[in-house]
Amino acid sequence: MISMPENVKYIISQLEKSGYEAYAVGGCIRDSLMGLTPHDWDVTTSALPQQVLSSLDAHNIIDSGMKHGTVTVKLGQDLYEITTFRADGEYTDCRRPDSVSFVTSLTEDLARRDFTMNAIAYNDKAGVCDPFSGEQDLKNRLIRCVGDPDKRFGEDALRILRALRFASRLGFEIEEKTSLSLHKNAYLLDNISAERKCSELLQIIDGEYAEKVLIDYSDVLSVVIPEISPMIGFEQHNPHHIYDVWQHTVKVIVNSPHGKVSRLSAMFHDIGKPHCFSLDEDGVGHFKPHPGISADMSREIMNRLRLDKKTITEVSNLILYHDTRPPATDKNIRRMIHNVGAENFIALLELKKADTLAQNPETIDYKLEYIEQLRKIFAEQTKNGEQFSLKTLNINGSDLISIGITDGKTIGKTLNTLLSLVIDGELENDHDLLLNAAKNI
Ligand code: ATP
Ligand code: MG
Fold first, then answer.
1. pLDDT, tens digit, for every residue of 386-417?
2. What is the CA radius of gyration of the chain?
3. Residue with the nearest Cα to atom 26 of ligand 1?
4. What is the pTM of this model?
5. How far apart are CA 351 and CA 421, in angstroms?
6. Pocket residues for ligand 1 (CB within 6 Å)?
7. What's the CA gap between 37 and 51, in Å, rounded?
8. Atom of ligand 1 nearest to the CA of 42
């Protein structure tokens, strides 16, 4: 029922030949039991790292974390991590054990793992080794801590986000005690590095089953991103909306295409709303400058989460323009394309569409029509080469230098002015015409 790749069988048999125990363990067994194809295979063994080395062909070994008990082996194109049975020592900082010690029993090793479904081992001789009834929980689609949840989340708070990640990816329920403990201990996430939290967060918002997790655990997400907190329960008092700001946001997230840029743009597109709310005399709510405020806030949050510069720029730009709706003319659309970049224009349309679909159903038809109109014109312009950027402008800095414009700042300004003229259809993208125009700017 579990079919291990030949390479994994080989590793296990080499270790067994040398007199050690060895098993495939963790995510690969969980996925196999669910009928999914594992993306990698990890091995756990009674052999110490040095003994792993001498049991296997040395030239395949990549030294990785040997002192923590992990040896990485490369077979063919694939990497396999072989980790010695291990128990974690005391945790005093909610993130890393002060020490790890090697142990002799498989059960002790499985006991340090996070969830019962991740604490199952297998080899062809012993079959499934499952001292914490992970298989039963898998059948019932339950995420349950191995042992006492308060203690386990106290040891390593990242497990809190791992639970949400698995729930979002697999659509499992989180078992009641584990769930209560997760809410209770969420504040411990402050001890975890931004990078590790961010990596989990991206997977949580990208999951097939994200909607329920994002609603049920909004308090936990608010620990990672405190700016989420004011969105929760914030009523919009506006005929375009039937959801509060967070409910609406969650719907936009799950209506968006998968992928980092789209999902992050969705998560942050309205994050500024609670900070610019006003009620008019008819009792209707408005959030006038919210795209700009949301874009600024998103930049700050993404910096804090240590996201890369390119992602931050793309996401904050999409947010800035998510609510712009000029008449669908050639010129306006060229402007919009220029604002977000041609490579992100479809992402902008998808964000607008996801946003629309999360609004009052009675108001969405004409909004969707408008978006499709933008899509059509964009496609035509792409086909006819009618989109313009500094790159496709038929004039460049050297051309300007040749006519005596030598100051860097002036060159930049001039090129942008020319680009604006071309985008607005006031000037053809023709080298000689551009050069002439440059002389008169
Ligand atoms: P994925 O399919 O996403 O790789 P995975 O379960 O394999 O999921 P990994 O991060 O690769 O997750 O970890 C491998 C195994 O190590 C897990 O299945 C689990 O048994 C254990 N593990 C990982 N992180 C923790 C942790 N923070 N606390 C306890 N056990 C952990
Ligand atoms: Mg894994």
1. 878 888 899 999 999 999 888 999 999 999 99
2. 28
3. 114
4. 0.91
5. 28
6. 26-27, 42, 113-114, 118-119, 156, 158-159
7. 30
8. 14
